[in-house]
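Render this sequence as a predicted structure.
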Amino acid sequence: MIADSVPVAEGYATDGNPTYFDVDFQGKHIRNTRDKNDTHNVESINADIRHYIKGLSRKSRCFFRTFETFRAVMSVFADAYNKFGEAKLASRKPVIHKSPKHSKHLHKWRYPAFSFLDFL
């Protein structure tokens, strides 16, 4: 089983899917059955990684020849991605909608026009 071959972590978080019930997690296991917010955030970051690092995209002929190269690329990506997230969070401005009746379905924040690539 794949879960048996990964390094032990302090904790594991799953979405409460019944397929995880038979897995013996070595650390703390958190089942989040209320909502999918955490899953959405993780999958969003995974999509960004696959988009920007072609060696990790699903249908790609690119690959890393050494683990050291992979580690260096991920280190640069993580540093730039974290700086981008911090700058985005620090510069967001609240949006005031004209119609409060429908505002819960609209964006709550306005972000400045910069991209992740500005932090590489």
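Summary. The mean pLDDT is 78. Residues 35-119 form one domain.
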